[in-house]
Every structure is written in structure tokens, then in C-alpha cells.
Amino acid sequence: MKQFEILKNAPILDGIPEEEFDFLITSLNCQLKNYPKDYIVLKEGTHLKRTGFLIQGALRQYCNHYWDNPIELSTLQPGTLFALSFQVDKEISLVSYQTLCHTVILWFDLEPLFEFKDEKGYHRRLISNLLQAMNEQNQQLLAHRTHLSQPTTREKILSYLSLESLRQQADEFDIPFDRQGLADYLCVERSAMSKELSKLKSDGYLITSKNHFKLLKP
Amino acid sequence: MKQFEILKNAPILDGIPEEEFDFLITSLNCQLKNYPKDYIVLKEGTHLKRTGFLIQGALRQYCNHYWDNPIELSTLQPGTLFALSFQVDKEISLVSYQTLCHTVILWFDLEPLFEFKDEKGYHRRLISNLLQAMNEQNQQLLAHRTHLSQPTTREKILSYLSLESLRQQADEFDIPFDRQGLADYLCVERSAMSKELSKLKSDGYLITSKNHFKLLKP
DNA sequence: TTCATTTTGTTGTTTTTCCAACAAACACAG
DNA sequence: CTGTGTTTGTTGGAAAAACAACAAAATGAA
After folding, report:
1. What are the chain B neighbours of A84 within 8 Å (beta carbons)?
2. CA of B21 to nearest chain A CA: how many angstroms apart?
3. pTM for the structure as a whole
4. Which domains can be identified in chain A, with CATH numbers?
5. How confident is the model over B196-208, as pLDDT tens digits?
């Protein structure tokens, strides 16, 4: 079954044997729910209760705050956790989630993970995986914010490329974006970015063809 | 002793009784180190090994990638965790840390937390606290990135204010910034922001005096 | 209170980015 | 190969933001 495959391969369950899933399903009070297209699964401003794990379908993550000026955040793919809260009924959700098609979500409680009924250590393993997932997301957010903090398009590009160079430990590398994708990621105009890339080329900062970049010290 | 106070009150040790600290110090292989002013504690591109907890002093967090174009990220205050890694010797640090004054750092290992020697559950408690801290940072980064993603100064302001309104559950609230601080946070010019705030006022979007804001639906 | 300092708002100029339109290069199915 | 659709680079005018300089207001210490 396809749904089970996604669950089985989720990083969050890494290191936990399948025969223990039943134990987890019971102790975390799991509940599988189906939603039709365009259904608002969670509305911003409401109290966070249970954690969601997207099994099938797609979720649109967005804000629509005070002045009804909707802001798109991202589209969640199967295998993603969302709506985490560690102080149930104290935290409120700052974002909304809406289904983009027929969607299946596994809801569960986090609290049992923090209680003392974990003879085999699988709760702790689950928490560790959670921690790791969150750490990764953190790194990505931190990097993205660093680029967006740069004042000009040129500096945004340089910030992105030099981090990518460090990450890939090379001064020559591929990037996972086409031009439009990179512009969206850096929140600038594609044409302005293209202009700036040309300048950088003629200034001797880099050589590029398609999504392959080679950095130079001019 | 002041250093111990900071440790004792750190959110990361919440719920763990003082008499258990010795146990943690031993099992996590803790090590206290002193650094002089301007010392580079960790350089970007090097492998992450141990986790740091800033006890005393201040750390400048910055990047200086390929083209030696330094980028300031933040200044860490006592009580902050940094240089976390969950795959020792696989992850590299994407940022550097430099002391701004005489600084004391507690270094420790994370791995023991994920092993099976936790009779009283304090390792798990520590992990939970870690998870919570990381979740909070995540929320803040996500919010910040959302604001920075907005194309214009006006939209950055509106994004920030409407989120703040949601967070504080009121259409009237104080913000923790002065004008310059808000401009820095939103990565825009103070004067341009001031201009835009004036426009928003005359357009009937808000009333403000000092750091108190009241939102209106025009 | 007065005076010095900091914060905030305003204005005009310069610079940068956005936007729209188009041409060249490329990708690919028939 | 040809033709179609997409991606990329380029350009010029419009809009916005940055910058600099200054005035008004608020703050805080003597």
C-alpha cells in the first residue's frame, strides 16, 4: 500500500523497526483522516492541538492576517510534518493549511513522547529524528534568511553562490534552480537578476552556463 | 556564582533537578573553556564536532564565504546553544563565531543523549527541551523570512504588523523595536520605512505613537 | 528647568529595482 | 529537420528604495 510506503520511508521513523509501529500508533493516539480538495485543514489563529504528518496529497501553507492580504509560504509534499506544538492549548498557529487535492493526514499527539513509558527507547528515537528534521529545516531557513537580508540583488546572488560553494566544498558546482527558480528563491526579478549575473560575469566573478557555476576571484 | 546561575536558569535544563547536573556533566563529556576577546571559536567550513553553550561573554555570528564579503548574522547572548550537529564529522559549519569579549563556553557531546543509558529519563528531558528551543527558533525564522520575502517596504511592514497582531491576539499592541530597530529587522532603510508608515497612517491602515500600534481596516 | 543627545519624520536627489516587451538560444516532439 | 514552446539575456521607461541632509520631537542628565 502506497500510504504505508510513505510512512515507512519517512525520515521521522528512521531506525524504528516496522513491528514497533503498532506500539507507536497506539501510544501516540494516531488518527488517519481524509480531506477533499480545497479544504482548510488548519486556520491561523486557532490553538495547536495535534501534530500532522502529510501522507498523501498536497497542502498549501499560507498566511492571511489582519488585512486579508494572503501570503503564500510553501506547498507541503507527502512526508512532511506540520502544526507541531510543545505546549498544547498555549500556542496558536501562525499559518493556515489548505488541501490542493484529495489529501490524507495522520494526526497524532506529541506528549506521550515525553512521558515515562518507553522501555525499548523508540519514543526517544522518534524524538531524536524529530530533532534532526527540525535542525535541517533550521539550517535551510537560516541560509535563506541570510540571502534575503542582503540589500541588493547582486549581494543576494553572491551570498547564495558563496554559501553553495561552501556547502558543496567546491568552487564549481550545479545549483538546483533554473533562472526563474533562483529569482523566486532570492525574491528578486528574474530580468534584474539576469542583468546582475551578466555584470558579475563581465566583472570576472564567475562563469556560468545553464545551472552550472564556476566561481572566480577577480 | 554567576556562571552557574546562567546554566541553572537555561531553558535547556528546564525540569532537570540540580542534583542531576553532575550526572549530565559526566555523561555528556562537558568541558568549560575560556577565550580571550576577538578569538575565532569556530570557523565556517570546518567539521562540526561538539555543541556549544554560551555561558558568559558574547559571540559574533557571521559568514565570510568565497569572496571575503563578510555578512553579519547576529550576536549571541549567554544562554544560547550553537554549533549543533547530529551527524558528527559529516556536517560542516556554515557560519563562523568570534568572541566580542572574554567569553566562557561549555562544550559537550550530543550523542550520549541518543544512547541507552538513561534510567531516570533526564536525557530524554534534555532532548525535549532541545526540541522545544529549536521549534521556537524555527517559528521566528519562518516569520522573519516571510516578512523579508515581501517585495516592497510597505508589504514588509504590513506582513510584520499583521503577524504581530495575530501573535498578540489584539489589533492594538506594542512592538519590541524602535524605528531603527524595526528597519534593521525588516532589512529596509529607516527613512523609507518612516515614509511608508506615514502613508499607511494617512491611508487609514493604522495609528501609531512610538512603539505602540493600533491596526485599522480602512 | 535647561541643554545635549537621541530618535523620528520629512524632503529632494541619486541609484537600484521592477516591469514589459522582445530577441536569441535552447529543448524537444513529430 | 522543422516548428513550437520554453528558457534566458537584453533593453528602456516607470516606480520604488536608498541615501544624505536637516528639522522637529522626545529623552535624559545636570
Report:
1. 135
2. 19
3. 0.91
4. 2-146 (2.60.120.10), 151-215 (1.10.10.10)
5. 999 999 999 999 9
